[in-house]
Design brief:
Layout (H helix, E strand, L loop, with lengths): L1 H4 L5 H14 L5 H10 L7 H21 L1
Length: 68
């Protein structure tokens, strides 16, 4: 959402920093899928919907772990 809503002066730089932050926190194959989703090369049906659902699920799991 942050990347999609970023606009205006230096928006490209802000988007790049956001993606860098995501990549820095990746484990395992996560970085590969973030890069592929940014490039639009997931090669799966309903790619955008699948990615959004997966990201939402990951966000919920991350928050649950932080609450423990």
């Amino acid at each position: 959402m942050k990347i999609a809503q970023t606009s205006g002066n230096k928006s490209q730089e802000l988007k790049t920093k956001t993606i860098q932050g995501l990549l820095a926190e990746c484990r395992g194959d996560e970085a590969k899928y973030i890069i592929r989703s940014c490039e639009g090369k997931l090669r799966i049906g309903n790619a955008e919907r699948s990615v959004l659902l997966s990201l939402a699920h990951a966000a919920v799991l991350h928050e649950q772990e932080e609450c423990r």
